[in-house]
Specification:
about 300 residues, alpha/beta, Rossmann fold, seven-stranded mixed sheet, about 10% strand
Length: about 300
């Protein structure tokens, strides 16, 4: 065998050995990679779940972190509207997707979880709550296909939903809510909370208006996302009286005994140091007060 043929033979063997190693490496990686076909979920395992997009699984929630409905003060009107919408959905009647928007700490997410608990007590069909994280919105079509046709009535819940500059994942949400070929499954409804009414930063909308040839069309696609929610429930900053009503509601519920004047003055001072009055600030004050009184509250 000539030297050239010998060198070519050696190169061919080296390439063949390298290809074999690459094939084994690829096979090993595929073995370690999680399956991308979602398993049929066991929705009977709990009343609430969290969607994990990376594994395409629903994790049951043993104990839901929620506030009792009687403790949600100052939001009576939106409370009644949300409960009525949820009751209709649980009964298999027409109902709307809901966007709860507005001031921080005023009970938007707490109301969703409390409404789920209240309606689930009387619903004829099992009413489930599934939380999907903002960063997993791209996987929403996969989740909807997994839930389509199930006997259970399901609330999909996304807390603190908003979209930043150059974020295109809102398109998945738009298609899933109303615009897709299949549309939203009849047994699924979408509830979301946000500090923004239109789910987009104001400067982003104003910038697109100012630089576009047709300003109204420039933002129409993004603004129309909010239009997919049939109900917009606004939450506004509470007054001093409403804040103090929240404080008294908590003390009565948890049976915390404290002098009325001291309670009022300390609660107002607490709100002043935080620069806001809200249900969240009231709850934080109550936790501090209960701790000082040597009591534990759930």
């Amino acid at each position: 065998m000539s030297k050239n043929k010998s060198k070519k033979h050696d190169r061919d063997e080296a390439f063949s050995a390298l290809n074999d190693k690459l094939d084994r490496l690829i096979a090993a990686i595929e073995t370690l990679s999680p399956a991308r076909t979602p398993a049929e979920p066991d929705l009977g395992a709990a009343t609430a779940f969290v969607w994990h997009a990376e594994t395409l699984t629903l994790q049951p929630v043993a104990k839901i972190n929620r506030v009792a409905m009687p403790l949600l003060k100052g939001i009576d009107r939106v409370r009644d509207i949300l409960i009525e919408n949820t009751e209709r959905f649980a009964a298999g009647q027409a109902a709307n997707n809901v966007l709860l928007w507005g001031a921080r700490g005023m009970g938007k997410s707490s109301l969703v979880k409390a409404a789920h608990a209240a309606v689930n007590e009387t619903a004829k069909a099992a009413l489930k709550l599934i939380e999907i994280h903002r960063e997993d919105i791209d996987s929403l079509p996969v989740l909807l296909n997994l839930l389509r046709g199930r006997a259970e009535r399901i609330i999909l819940f996304c807390d603190d939903l908003s979209f930043d500059h150059d974020d295109s994942s809102y398109k998945s949400l738009k298609a899933a809510l109303e615009g897709g070929v299949e549309g939203r499954p009849d047994n699924v409804i979408f509830y979301a909370t946000s500090n923004r009414r239109h789910l987009l930063p104001r400067d982003m909308m104003e910038n697109e208006r100012s630089t576009a040839i047709n300003p109204s069309e420039a933002v129409e696609e993004k603004v129309s996302l909010s239009d997919r929610f049939g109900l917009w429930l606004g939450f506004h900053k509470c007054s001093q009286d409403e804040y103090l009503e929240m404080i008294r509601g908590y003390t009565d519920y948890f049976k915390l005994t404290y002098p009325e004047e001291k309670l009022r003055s300390e609660a107002l001072e607490w709100a002043t140091t935080r620069g806001a009055r809200s249900g969240r600030v009231a709850w934080q004050f109550i936790q501090d007060l209960a701790g000082r009184l040597g009591k534990s509250i759930g």
